Fold:
Amino acid sequence: MKVKFWGVRGSYPVPGISTNKYGGNTPCIEVRLNNGQLIIIDAGTGIRMLGQELINNGFGSGKGRADILISHTHWDHIQGFPFFKPLFIDGNQFTIHARPSNHLHLKEIISYQNKDCYLPIPFNAVKANLDFVEIDADQKFRIGDAVVKTFKLNHPNIAIGYRIEADGKVFAVVSDTAPFENVLIGEQFIPKPPSTLTEEEERTLGELQFKLNSVLEDVDFMVYDTFFQVNEYVKNPHWGHSTPEHGIDLCLESGVPRMALFHHAPGNTDEILDGMQNYYRLKSKETHVEVIVAREGEEIIL
Ligand SMILES: [Zn+2]
Ligand SMILES: [Zn+2]
Structure:
């Protein structure tokens, strides 16, 4: 199994000279099985460049097929979709899996980006065959030769994590999420974190943490939301993002040997991310958890 990063940035794209090395595109990860099967995680602006490459590999002649797993439909995770070229070629087939909102079906959520107030290209210009599959947490399903498990994350309006097992390896994407400790985030945006948790909230957080630890138990490589540094997280635990320290704790608890810091904050320049890479490389000598900073274009072979 191969994992390739096409977009690693959280919140909004940040092109420019200070982000050239790690990249400024919003989330998109290519998962390529040994038999060539393609699974795409998220459709942030990184999916545009992936689309260019796919056009040269079967999708240009309408023979492409892929599944797209969306962590959640906040804009940074779907905003590249209208610019994904293989959609406009007859014969290509995409199955889009995501959790709908309480008010809108998945197809509406995705296609609303093409409404004429936002974009000149209507959604019916899409020529590929699209299947929309509405999913939720705690599901297990098969996509070709891969077995996918979904789990709930701690993020406003709820995000879904994915565990993908194929080729004798296990890969997990845990983004976007806050750790399950200070605040339980649900469908609503919470303007500020509560000073105390109710017993029920504590119980639910404990259950979610238990499920997350179990689902990650035999994971070989995890991609984790590290939008915050610890001092930033403590001010805004209700935003639904984590820190590298939380990721390392999770790896130690669940026995995950390797993780990538991901969903970088827009303000994290190459210089800052280089500093983080050096710091966490040293730290891994104590923890024995290998930590890399996800970088656009980087491929990890599992
Ligand atoms: Zn995000
Ligand atoms: Zn989000």
Observations:
- The longest strand covers residues 146-152.
- The mean pLDDT is 97.
